[in-house]
Structures are given as structure tokens and as C-alpha cells.
Amino acid sequence: MTTRTQQIRHYLMCKPSHFTVSYTINPWMEPANPTDTAKAVEQWQKLYDLYVELGHTVELVEPGEGLPDMVYTANGGFLIDGTAYAPKFRFTERAGEEPLFIDWFRENGYHVVVPQETNEGEGDFLLAGDVILAGTGFRSTGESHREVGEVFGKPVVSLTLVDPRFYHLDTALAILDPVVEPGAEVGVAYLPSAFDEESQKTLATLFPNAIHVSDEDGAVFGLNSASDGKNVIISPRAVGFKKQLEERGYNAITVDLSELLLGGGGIKCCTLELRGASA
Ligand code: ARG
Asked: The organism sits in which domain of life (predicted)?
């Protein structure tokens, strides 16, 4: 079996102290259903503790009052080599998060690029080797794909999402191992039916050995996972995906974020990778 090597990561998280579901901007959010903020914090803390235990560095941004979705820091930006491409949220409900993330990046020494185009950060942009995979269809626009490519000077592969349950790219596709030898294939898992036909063809060509997950595992946000190249943190409900990962030599670790799923987010949504100049 393939031996996997862990890469140490630098993450940004935000405690869900103000988490609740008070509006609907994705099909998972139902304001009539009660939420339990204390439980959300407790579940989130387990993810934080696990990252630290695995040796990763985790930074925290102060949660903004009246911004219940700020816990999903993956949408707070997209960072490569110390440059932070800031978000411009699709819905006004989340626009208040923009200055808070920008301030945090600036205070922590990142070069901030304020976008012209609507984009939701690492929710829709994933770095696969030297290529940016970019999702559109629900949140980030096609124009933001051009903009992110210009900002980082990297090729962008646009992928169109078609199933409203999987409205961000990181709900439908996971990068398992971005560090590759020249010519080798990036480790990827995805749910084919979440993409339009053309994007499915693109993915099949780019990643012929990718893991295809079942709709069942996708629907419990199995793909909304965080991998360090060896350890892959996933939802305990994604039982089929767990097996697939183990067959490929990854160490699957489960963390239950059921409370945060009420807002339509999971493990990856709560995790933003800070790719610094020295990283
Ligand atoms: N309620 C949030 C929204 O709809 C959830 C964001 C999930 N984040 C993610 N990276 N998929 O915007």
C-alpha cells in the first residue's frame, strides 16, 4: 500500500460563539430548526484540538457579533505565498465578515488583494499542485476565476456545480494530497454528479485515479474534509468514503460537526489554509 507523508499545515479558524441559523442562504439552513451554540462550540473545539495534536498551527480570528456564519473561515479568503485574495460574499448576510478577515490578514502580515468579483475564498478555490480548481454555479462567479488566476499567476480550471446541496466546490471535491512530484497525480476525491457534464469530463481527464464518492457519503458532507497528505479528517457518517481512504493508505480520522451542518458547513468549511511566504 502507498505510504502517505504528513505535511504540517497553518490554519485559520473562528470559534462559533455566535453560531445560529437565522437566515437561509443554502438548502441546509432551516431557521425554524433549533440550534445549540454550546454544542457547536464543543464540536468545533474537538476539531481545533485534533489539528493541534496532529502538529498543525492554528490561528484564531475573533468571531463577529451578528455574523453566525463566520465560523466557516474557508470562505474568508484564498491564500498562496503570503498573499490573501479576500472574499466578496454573494449574500449580504455574510458581507460583514469581509472587513474582519481583511483586518486579520493585514494585522498578521499578509498582503491583501481586495477583489472586484464575487468570490467565497477557499470554499470555491482549491489548490491542486500548481493549478487552482475553481467552482462556480452558486456562489463565486466565473469572473472571479479570471481574477484569482491573475492575482496568483496560476492556471485556473473552472468547474460548474449543478446540485444546490453542493453549492461550494469544497462540498463536492476534496484535495487529499496537493504535493506532487512533477508529472504525478494530485490526490483528489469528488462526487461526479455534483458537476455538469463538461466539468465531469475535465475532472476525469485531470484526475483519472481520483476517488469517486457515493451520493450517500457526499450528502453527509463527507467530502468537506481536511487532509494533511496523510491524515484525512472526515465526518463519521461518511462510512464508505472512510473505507476508500483507508484502501489508498490514508489515515481517516472522524470528527462530528453535526451542529455546524445545520448551517450547511462541515470540517473543511471551518478551516482556512494560510499558505505563507515561507510555507
Ligand atoms: N452558511 C454558510 C453559507 O451558506 C456555510 C458556508 C460553508 N462553507 C464552505 N466552505 N462550504 O455561506
From this structure: Bacteria
Q: If you take atom 9 of ligand 1, which residue's CA is the nearest one?
A: 269
Residue 160: which residues within 8 A CB-CB, separation 6 or more? 135, 136, 137, 195, 196, 198, 199
Q: Which domain holds residue 198?
A: 10-273
Residue 1 lies in a domain: no
ipTM over 0.90: yes
Residue 263 near ligand 1, beta carbon < 6 Å:
yes
State how many domains the chain has: 1
Q: What is the pLDDT of residues 123-134, one digit of tens each?
A: 999 999 999 999
pLDDT tens digits for range 208-248: 999 999 999 999 999 999 999 999 999 999 999 999 999 99
Residue 10 is a catalytic residue: no
Asked if residue 214 belongs to a domain, the reply is yes
Establish whether 270 is a catalytic residue. Answer: no
The pTM of the full predicted model, rounded to 2 decimals, is 0.97
Give distance in angstroms: CA of 150 to centre of ligand 1. Answer: 25
Residues 6 or more apart in contact with residue 154 via CB below 8 angstroms:
80, 130, 131, 132
Residue 241 lies in a domain: yes
Rounded Cα gap, residues 124 and 117, in angstroms: 13
- What is the number of the ligand 1 atom nearest to the C-alpha of 269? 10
Query: Region 178-191: what's the mean pLDDT?
Result: 84
Q: Say which CATH number the domain at 65 has.
A: 3.75.10.10
